[in-house]
# Entry
Amino acid sequence: MATSPKLIAAAGGCLLALYVGYIVVDRIHVSTALAAETKENALPDVAVVKPIQSPKKVALTLPGNIDAWYQAPIYPQVSGYVKMWYKDYGARVKQGDVLAEINAPALDAQYAQAKADLASIMAKYNLSNVTLQRWQAMGRSQSVSGQSVSVAQADQQSAKAQVEAAERNVAHFEALERFKTIVAPFDGIVTSRDINVGDYVHDGGGNLNAAGAASELFTVADVHKLRLFVSVPEVFQYVLKPDITAEVTVPQFKDRKFTANFLTTARGYDPNTRTSTTEFEMDNPNEVLWPGTFASVELKANNENAHLYEVPTSALVFQEKGMQLAVVRNDNTVHFQNVTVGRMADTATEIQAGIGPNDHVIANPPADVLEGDKVNVTVPQRGYNQSGFGKENE
# Structure
């Protein structure tokens, strides 16, 4: 049977209508989805955290410097040439051990001159004694005037004073002669030697370095105990108690820990760094630690502000109204809450007032977010943790 043209036309019209309807419905769907996505993307994504309570114990890790219990740079007290040195780097010495000798011919000549002057003045003094005795004998027989006796007595006293001055001068050079021998001031180790045979050294300083400054001849250090110096920030002053101990690690002994006991603190702050120099003492068994070692110092103490809350330091907002936190309300709108800030660290800051444990604080507020803006609260990926905060979001 032949197909009617009218039937074919009707079928084609139906297909066309279905196709047009499909296109219209698809475009409506795409437009609706695009509008929803556009609306959603218009809201900034933020991650929120809940404030956590400050820990009962506070741990603070600071850099420190280990120094000898005693350390003495030794300078010459006379000018001359190094005759010989006897102790090298790392030598163990006892108090009074000879480290070096200095040849000082100019000093020797001055010493000899002082002794000769003393002998000359002593001869004059002896003569004045004899003269005084003679004048006194003649004065008793009234052969001479009393004035002449008084003059002879004054001459004798002047000669005596000159003898005493000459003796002091000789004693001065005798002391300098002893300084020709450089000795160790105490038991210890020679940590530096900056002279060689033939070097010229001068009174009050050793060799002249490239900058023209004088350097010491030797450095001797007593290392049976050590001093540990740490610069403690002023916000952690409360940590410094007489019974506090420090746990010390050094680069050369990564798996070993040393203990240092609090000794004293400067009781003042450096205005440039706002830190106070604090000193600890350390035993040094077998002298395994050397002066000048860099140390990582961990201090632990009870936290006096354990009742306060902490938030990430990145959550702080600096406004003209003061320090604030961006808090997300239940309707996902932003509110800038005024807070009172306590101690601040790189990762966490204590909040003394203004927030509670159930507030949702934006961890890192966008720069363009304003009061009352709606935001989209995102859930961090599993395992994401912001310095101990936001664990409820994991």
Q: What stands out?
A: Residues 5-41 form the longest helix (37 residues). The chain has a mean pLDDT of 83. DSSP finds three helices and 23 strands in the chain. Helices lie at 5-41, 105-140, 146-178.
